[in-house]
Amino acid sequence: MNSELSLADHITLELRADIIGGRLLPGMALVESDLVSAYNVSRNTIREALHRLGQEGLTRYVRNKGVMVRRLNVGDVQDLFKVRRTLELQAILGSQPLREYQSDRMLEALEAAELAREREDWRAVGTHGLAFHQHVVGLMGSPLLNEFFTNVVAQLRLVFCAAPDEPRFQAPWLSRDRDIHDWLAEGDKGAAYEAMSLYLDDSEQQLLQFLTPSIHH
């Protein structure tokens, strides 16, 4: 399938991966001339890739500044979590006890996140944690939904950047992710569903607090 992708497709995927990996942050400029040099392609190819990122909600054009990585707002976060609840909870409801390869993928992401936590690489903790949730959606076996959710994950990464204290934000989720995996492995969909629902509620609330100025009474 990759052989069918155009140059612009490949560059779009690489730039999106840089966002998911936390290497491109909100407010960063994506300078055409720099990207032309980095990828050794034409300006038209870069413009096409940047246009696609804009369609995916990852960049925006700012007059006199050019293309910038987006900063997401409260409405964006609320919308992202509507999507997460729809996809991740449905994936759990429709799941069977995890097959070995499905469990292995989830555990690989969780173990990578735990190793990153040990070396205090909190950006990597977030990246691997998001990969776990991609594997949850992957239980539905839909390439289209997987591709769609990858874009959701990229936007979530941009929201994570709003966390003023990344270690405090990232640390609590890993044990909850592991519990969800264990219940899925045992075929206890009810427990996994309830845990994921609470997880998403708590995550959304915390991210909204980061984006909403404190109101002092």
UniProtKB/TrEMBL annotation:
* Top-level division of the source organism's lineage: Bacteria
What keywords appear on the UniProt entry? Answer: DNA-binding, Transcription, Transcription regulation
- Which GO molecular-function terms appear in the entry? DNA binding; DNA-binding transcription factor activity
Q: Which residues form the HTH gntR-type domain?
A: 5-72
Keyword DNA-binding tagged: yes
Q: Identify the InterPro entries for this entry.
A: GntR_C, TF_FadR/GntR_C, Tscrpt_reg_HTH_GntR, WH-like_DNA-bd_sf, WH_DNA-bd_sf
Q: What protein name is recorded for this chain?
A: GntR family transcriptional regulator
